[in-house]
Amino acid sequence: MRIAQEQVEMFHARHGYPIAEQPTASTPDMRMHRYKLILEELTEYSQASSDEDVAGIADAIADLLYVVHIAVDVCAVAF
Fold it and tell me: What is the CA radius of gyration of the chain?
């Protein structure tokens, strides 16, 4: 999982997206934005699961992992 996180960090650095150096709660707007992204992907996962849509499940999981990795960068939370 660390390799995926490093790839997200490199992408964000290359495009000038914020990456925190110290653990932080970030701004209220950024926290709400991340929350909405995670909730959207979790909702897509739930729907795909209900529909037994394997491709949709895989897509939702990949997107969910990506948005969680973004949240890790924004908040500088190590895992």
Answer: 14
pLDDT digits (tens, 9 = 90+) for 27-74: 888 889 889 999 999 999 999 999 999 999 999 999 998 888 888 777
Q: pTM, whole model, 2 decimals?
A: 0.73
Question: What token pair was written down for 3?
Answer: 């390799």
- What gap in Å lies between CA 63 and CA 71, rounded to an integer? 13
Opening angle at CA 46, ends 74 and 4, nearest 5: 35
CB burial of 25-45 (b: ≥16 within 10 Å; e: otherwise) equals: ebeeebeebbeebbeebeebb
